[in-house]
Amino acid sequence: MLTNFDLEKMVDTSDEWIRTRTGIVERRIADPDVPTSHLALSSAGAALESAQTEPRDLDLIIVATVTPDMFFPSTASLLQQKLGAGYAAAFDILVGCTGFVYGCAVAREMIGAGTYERALVIGAETLSKIADWQDRSTCVLFGDAAGAVILAPTEEKHGILDYSLGNDGTNADALKIPAGGSLMPTSEQTVAERLHYLTMNGPEVFKFAVRAMADSSEEVVRRAGLAMTDVDVVIPHQANLRIIDAAAKRFHLPYERFVRNLERYGNTSAASIPLALDEAVRTGRIKRGDHVLLSSFGAGLSWASMVLRW
Predict the structure, then answer these.
(1) How many helices (H) and strands (E) does the chain have?
(2) How far apart are CA 276 and CA 281, in angstroms?
(3) Contacts of 212 (CB under 8 A, 6+ apart)
(4) Distance between CA 232 and CA 212 in Å, rounded?
(5) Are residues 10 and 140 both part of a single domain?
(6) In DSSP terms, which residues pair with 298 in a beta bridge?
(7) Of 108, 137, 157, at which residue does a domain stop?
(8) In 3-state terms, what secondary structure has residue 76?
(9) Whole-model pTM?
(10) What pLDDT does 158 receive?
(11) What is the mean pLDDT of the chain?
């Protein structure tokens, strides 16, 4: 665990500054030798146990992450081997914080088409490995985590009702890691210039986030044949308390309907929503029959919202 007081000793910041601007108090940091696939494996095991499903029953594995173990093979491929999931199809999705919802949307369509029957979708990140611990504007925000779900067909009117995905590439530079890809291959210069760490235009991302989350959420709720007042629980991407507050005002919903845990975990990117979803289910905040809205924004700049009937 890394607290705001710990960060005060590392960079020029303070607990008060972090709390008032983000709402974050502490975050979890993986050991240096722990890869993303390890966190994914732990969350997969918990999801399989909860769903009373064996790894051999999976025929699709999707891992959403921007911190893969390596460029290739995919983290999903490494996870398949660790799980002993037979010959299940396995691939990664790289869209940042929206990755988990994107992954669930892809799995839903593949299952709906009859191609697959049981999918494991995971959001897993070790953002501490790409955070610039000399940049006080970004390093205070992120934590490491993983969360997973099992998707399968149902004849009941439960599960994923609809989703809305989108992207605005004109703002792609607002959130990125500049070097390490084919555009700017790794070199002595890129390492010296610290171009392999996450960079973010905070004000630009903030403005985009509030608009994108609100617009996509309203769209998907309408497409699901519901009114916003029919939504029992909202699980927003846990990035910044002020963004969640702004979304609550835009939705005109009681603040109690919004799940919030960023004060304990920080921004865990693709792991953010499944982590909050798991806590909401285990603590009884989500009950059978509830309409649940997932809403996120991320690199790209992308957005993704989804309505579930639990």
Answers:
(1) 10, 12
(2) 9
(3) 166, 168, 297, 301, 303
(4) 21
(5) yes
(6) 302
(7) 157
(8) helix
(9) 0.96
(10) 87
(11) 95
